[in-house]
Specification:
Blueprint lengths: L9 H12 L16 H16 L3 E4 L5 E5 L9 E6 L12 H16 L8 E6 L12 H6 L5 H5 L9 H7 L15 E7 L4 H5 L3 E7 L1 E10 L3 E2 L11 H17 L6 E3 L3 E4 L5 E2 L2 E10 L2 H17 L3 E8 L2 E2 L2 H14 L3 E6 L4 H5 L5 E6 L15 H19 L2
Parallel strand pairs: 3-4, 3-5, 5-16, 6-15
Antiparallel strand pairs: 1-2, 2-4, 6-14, 6-16, 7-12, 7-13, 8-11, 9-12, 10-12
Helix pairs in contact: 1-3, 3-12, 8-9, 10-12
This protein binds zinc ion.
Zinc ion (ZN) binds next to loops.
Length: about 400
Amino acid sequence: METNEIRINGDRLWQRLMTMAQIGATAKGGVCRVTLTDEDKAGRDLFVNWCEAAGLTITVDEMGNIFGRRAGQNNDLPPVLAGSHLDSQPTGGKFDGVYGVLAALEVVETLNDHNLITEAPLEIVSWTNEEGARFTPAMVSSGVWAGLFSLEYAYGREDKNGRFLGDELQRIGYKGELPAHHRPLTAAFELHIEQGPILEYEGRQIGIVTGVQGARWYHLTIPGKESHAGSTPMNVRHDPVKTAVSLLGRAYAIAEKYEPDIRLTFGDLRPSPGVVNTIPGELLVTVDLRHPSEAVLDEVEGLFTKLAEEHGAKLVNIWTSEAVVFAEKCVQAVETAVSITGYSARRITSGAGHDSVYLSRVAPTSMIFIPCADGLSHNELESATQEDVVAGANVLLHAVLAAAQP
Ligand SMILES: [Zn+2]
C-alpha cells in the first residue's frame, strides 16, 4: 500500500476513547478526571499499558509528563512529538485533551500495523495538569518544560484542600526522574476539538490551526460624582453610567470594523458605592479584548485609550497574553495531510489556550481541530462524531509522516 493511502483504525481509536471515558465517568455522560487524583492515575496507568503494548518506550519527567518513544530510522534526528493532555475539568467531556493523546497513540498503532518506520523518531506525550482546574495556572507542566516556570513554583501550587502539586505527583507515582526541560524537536502537533462553533457552523471537518489569538484585559474607570438620586436634577448630574452608555457604544462600533476575528467583552460593571438611590461616584468596567494579530490589538488599544480620554475616563491594562503564530512548516505539514486525505478544511485561530502555546516557544508547533457539537466544551455534554474523530486522526497521521521525513 502507498504511504498516502494509509488510514488509522477508527474503531480502535473510538473504542479507546470510550474506554478511557469510563474512568471518572459522570452521570450526565461526561468525565471527571481532575489532575493528580486517583482517577487521573487510573487514566495514566491505562494509557501507559496501551503504549507499552504498542512497543513504545515510556519515560516520565519530573512534572509527570508521560512520553512514549518509537524509534526512527535515524535516531540522531530530533523526534516528532504529538499529544495533548489526559486530565479533565471537574465537569468535563470525553474529548478535550484525551482525544489528542489517544489519536497520537493511534498514529503509532497504525504505523506498527503497516511496518512503517519513519526517518525521525516519534514521541507521543500527555502533559500534566493542562486544565488548571485543581492547581492554577493551566498548562503549568508544558510551561515548566518550555522554561517559563520553575520546578519549585510548579511543585508549590496548592489546591483548595491544602494539597501541593509536587506531593500529589509523588502520591500517584508519577513524579519521574527525567528533567522537565525542553529538548530539540523536529516538529510538534496537537490534535484537539475546536471548543468553539466555527467548523460545525461552516460544515468543515478540519481546522488547520495557524495560531492562538492574543488577549488583553483592562480596567476602564469612569469618574462621576456621588449624589442623591431623588434631589439631583438630571441636567446637573455627573453620572458615570450615562458616560458609559456613549463610551461603550462607541467601543462596540470600533470593534465592528475588525470583524470577524475580534472579541470584545465588558464582563463586569461595578458602580460604586453600588446603591439603588445614589448616583455612582465611579464606574469600573472590565474589558476583555482578543484578536489573532498583535498589530490589530495595538491599534484597537490606541483607539480605546483615546476614546476613554475623550470621556474623561481611564483605561489601564491589567493582563496580557500575546498572540501565538504557529510555525509555518508545521502548518504546511497539516495542509499536506489535508490534501492527502481530502477532508474539507479551513485555516482557523484558536480561541482557547493549549499546551501548544508554550511548546511553540521552544519548538516548531501547530495544531489540528475537529468540530464539536454546538461548540460546547468544558461541559459534560461535550461531543464529537466518530467520523470527525477519525478524520482528525488521519490528518494527524499524515502531518506526522510529512514532518518525520527530512
Ligand atoms: Zn484541552
